[in-house]
Amino acid sequence: MEQDFTQYTNEDLLIKYKRTKDIKMKHELVMRYMYMVRSISIQMRDVYLSFAQVEDIVNEGVLTIMSGIEKFDPEMNVKFETYISKRIRGMIIDMARKQDWIPRSVRKNAKELDNAVMELCNRLGRFPSPKETAEYMDISLEKYQEALGKTNVYSVLSLDMVLEAGNDNKKTVQLPAVNENEQPEDHYLQEEFKQILVHAINNLKENEQKVISLYYMDELNMKEIAQVMNVSEPRISQIHSNAIQKLKLYLTGFING
Fold first, then answer.
1. Cβ atoms within 10 A of the Cβ of 141, count?
2. 124 three-state secondary structure
3. Is the dihedral of CA 37, 43, 45, 47 positive or negative?
4. Stated pTM of the model
5. Pairwise CA distance, residues 12 & 170, whole Å
6. Which residues lie below 8 Å from residue 135, measured CB to CB, with a gap of 6+?
7. Quick check: 158 and 247 in contact, CB under 8 A?
């Protein structure tokens, strides 16, 4: 007999599954959260299109949802949508990093850009403008913007690596395995890191904040953001890369500080 789950909200169904372990409930939950896999796989397609198809990501995403349902703790005081979105994005980034697909020239350009910005930050005591960075690197502003756009995907992955590196110092936001009240030091560091991240984002330019919000919170892709902000897609990539570069520099200073 076919069970009717329409009377349950997603949250209620998840709690009921945790209690009963009814496999049909789990299948229903996977179907309900499939939209997130499709949405994130489309948004992040620039990260994986050189080595995987959307269908491959969706298949991996289904496995991620199934695993996430088992590991999720409703007592963690975080929504399942937030939890599983983070896991799906992490799965895609892990796949990209394992493929080591980013061309050596892009890695080299990204490192040169980062080094130039870091050196100018130390000299100026603030984040340099694109014009200042271009002049320091002895290239035209157009060339600098072009290089910045090409390192866009690498910037996302490298920021993720900065956050992961901080995990060793227990300074990044972690999803606690047990009650966070039993880990007062970790809980304090998580809250401190959240405040640092919010402060870093608030110090971005208005258009950078908007791109970061549309990409990471609203989960739009670069083409959709370009339409919302009425500018070209390459320009959005430049704004995004610049914002990520600033956040990475700021967070690296916090982690190593």
1. 14
2. helix
3. negative
4. 0.55
5. 33
6. none
7. no
- 101 CB neighbour count, 10 Å cutoff: 16
DSSP one-letter code for 183: -
Share above pLDDT 70 across residues of the chain, in percent, rounded to a whole number:
76
CB 193 within 8 A of CB 172: yes
Q: Are 239 and 207 in contact (CB under 8 A)?
A: yes
Say which residue the tokens 């896999």 belong to. Answer: 37
Exposed, middle or buried: residue 82 (CB in 10 Å: 0-12, 13-18, 19+)?
exposed
Query: Model confidence over 203-220: pLDDT tens digits?
Result: 888 999 998 888 877 778
Structure tokens, 166: 């901080």
- Joined tokens for residue 216: 């990471």
Burial of 182 (0-12, 13-18, 19+ CB in 10 A): exposed
CA distances from 68 to 8, 79, 105, 126, 193 (A): 19, 12, 37, 41, 24
Identify the sign of the CA torsion 6, 9, 11, 16: negative
pLDDT digits 0-9 by tens, 19-59 = 999 999 999 999 999 999 988 888 777 777 777 888 888 99
Residue with tokens 């995990």: 167
